[in-house]
Each structure stands twice: as C-alpha cells, then as structure tokens.
Amino acid sequence: MFTKLYKRIRLLKNMNKEPYSSLYKILGFYPDNIHLYEQAFLHKSSSVESGDGRWLNNERLEFLGDAVLDAVVADIVYKHFQNKREGFLTNTRSKIVQRETMNRVAVELGLDKMVVYSAKLSSHNNHMYGNALEALIGAIYLDQGYEVCYNFIQNVLIKKYVNLETIARKEVNFKSSLIEWSQKNKLEISFDLIESFTDNDGNPVFQTGVTLSDTQIGVGIGYSKKESQQSAAKMAIKKLRTDKTFQQFISELKKKKTGENTAENEFENLPEEAVENSGQEIADTEKRKAETSIEAVPAEN
C-alpha cells in the first residue's frame, strides 16, 4: 500500500514534466518505472555506464519487446482471420512485425524525436526507430504487465497505424526488386530453371537458381516458374541483407567490374526478407516430401 501511495505522489509531482507528458500522449497511461522507458530510447551508440559497471542501452529491451510483439500480433491475427490457414497467418504476422512497418509506425508515433543516439550516427536508412519501438514494448511489458502491453499493441499500434486487411494483401515482388538493385549496381543477374519435377500428388514443382555476376546467390522452388523465381530472389535478398562476408564479396566484385564503391546502406535498401509469398511454405513442405519419392524431370530449355 505504501508503494502505491509513493508512486501516486511521485506521479502527481511529475505528470506535467518530460518525459512523462510525451509518454502519456503515446501510451495512454503514465509509466511507473520511468527508467525503463528512458532506457528504451537509448541507442547503443549512446550507451551509459550504470553504477555497477554495466553499459545500458535499449538492446535487451528490444529483444524482449520483439518476442512480446510476435506473440501479441500472432494472437490478434489468429482472432481476426478466423477462416485463414497457418501459412496466411504467418505471412500476415511477418508483414506487420517486419522492420519496414515498425520503422513507419515508430515515426508516426513520434519516437524519432525521443531516441537518443550519437551525433556521428546517421538517422537515415537504418532501423533505430523500429528497434526503439520494440524496446518500448519491452519496457511496457516489464512496467505494466502483459495485459497492458497487449492493449497498447492492439489499440494503439494496430488499430491506429496498421490496416490488417490491407497489409494481409500486400505483396513484395522480390524478383523485380533484385533486378532493379542489380541494374543500379551494374551487376549482371539471371534466373535459370534448374529442374522441374512432380510432387506426390502429381503437381508440377519448379526449382530456379538466381545468379549474380556468375555467382549463384539463391535457389527457390514453387508450383510455378514465377513462384520459384520469387522464392530464389527472396533467398538472394536475405543473403545480401544479412551476410556481411557476402556483402564484402559483392562490394569487391562490383569494384573490380565497375571501378565503383558500394554505398554503406546499399544492402539495407533491399526489401525485408520477412515478407513471404503465400504458398511458399506449402512448396517447401511438398519439396521435402517429394525428394524421397520422385524422379527429377529434366528442365526444359
């Protein structure tokens, strides 16, 4: 009882001060432990040392918030799309929690004005605002509990800034994005059919490889050539976005072929790999089943 009274007195004293007032406008409630929220907006480039020698920033809160966000969005999507199958639900959740969406929502919430980061660090073409939003979710979870955190995600993030029906229909053309990226960087790219075969039900399945300047960077399968190309492009984009060693290899290859350097943010400008084509999970499953019971049919030239 004394603790609640103390918190109430402290709140009355600070509710019109920053960051309490700004957080109230965003959250719809006043924080109990303000230090959690201050840490949520502290980018690692501006880490501070605690009294016990630990360096504090928002990375641990981001880790926690990411897990809570995934769970809550999964529940919301499951309840909203009651007649949809698992693959659709997975894809829709991925589109909501992907970094592109989180960055946009974070800016619309005004978090870009609250994140503390080094002046040497550019705020453009990176994910600090989306990361801060996930850290904020982690702070809410620790400060207020799961129910309040769930309500914030559902009633603020989703209802105000995410149209579930629209985002569920959103598709990313990975092939076009990859071709555009390769042309911009003056690197040759090709999509080649590796093989075609049939699954256990007699459905045709296609396997396609994507090659960038004579180096294979992705392989995909699908129930159509188009789907297999999209899958291959998606794998290639994931590798280009996340594999630092491969990024260095491509940068050196570009330098050798064109004499041009690769911009630091060049790989980040590729679309998020989290968004998936509907049907790809089915194709992956059937491919695994088919590998043990079918004979490959030579690809048509």
From TrEMBL:
Pfam family, one: dsrm
GO BP annotations listed: mRNA processing; regulation of gene expression; rRNA processing; tRNA processing
Catalytic activity reported: Endonucleolytic cleavage to 5'-phosphomonoester
One Gene Ontology term, aspect cellular component: cytoplasm
SUPFAM superfamilies: dsRNA-binding domain-like (SSF54768), RNase III domain-like (SSF69065)
Protein residues bound to Mg(2+): 62, 131, 134
EC number(s) on file: 3.1.26.3
Regions of compositional bias (Acidic residues) in chain numbering: 263-275
Known cofactor(s): Mg(2+)
Top class in the EC scheme: hydrolase
Compartments, record wording: Cytoplasm
A molecular-function term among this protein's GO annotations: double-stranded RNA binding
Protein task: Digests double-stranded RNA. Involved in the processing of primary rRNA transcript to yield the immediate precursors to the large and small rRNAs (23S and 16S). Processes some mRNAs, and tRNAs when they are encoded in the rRNA operon. Processes pre-crRNA and tracrRNA of type II CRISPR loci if present in the organism.
Subunit structure, as described in the record: Homodimer.
Family as reported in the entry's similarity comment: Belongs to the ribonuclease III family.
UniProt-recorded name of the protein: Ribonuclease 3
Species, as recorded: Parabacteroides merdae
Taxonomic placement: Bacteria, Pseudomonadati, Bacteroidota, Bacteroidia, Bacteroidales
Gene field: rnc
